[in-house]
């Protein structure tokens, strides 16, 4: 019954215990990833937390994509059988507009999925929350230059997203946008020469006039 092993030399060696205390505690919500990563699933490509901005074969990410990859956008794409939707980590009403609203506007320039959907839907849904006008109006000086760049983009789909976002913004902030319209109309007039955009831009201008009042 003695746990001590006796060697021929007379040296006493205690056997090594086979029970070790666990060095890891229960995982935290933002705990670092384990050293050995599981094999990625195909769906992980759309998960912002699995996007590796420093991957050997990945191109440099845009500012919006980098923020999204780091989990800086508090919503994610949910695939539906009929259509996709956004799932917010918290209620949109509780999300600070600054800087998220401007960041989503910058994302309108994206041309890759899921950034295109997240930026478009996120921008629209923030404008739908209660008190959106009071939150958005102070950001107009920073927001308008971003929308101007979106409307100047060579990609047709990017331009359409920017035009839709402009109308959505005008519907919420109303006449507060009037002083900034002169920075945006030049890009609209250029596209107005294109037949495929003529009707859509004309309708957008009519809505800007409606929401902005006589001054617009």
UniProtKB/TrEMBL annotation:
Q: Which domain of life is it from?
A: Eukaryota
Cross-referenced SUPFAM superfamilies, in alphabetical order?
A: ARM repeat
The residues forming a coiled coil are: none
Q: Where is this region: Disordered?
A: 1-49
Q: Where is the composition biased (Polar residues)?
A: 1-28
Q: What is this protein called?
A: PACRL protein
UniProt source species = Nycticryphes semicollaris
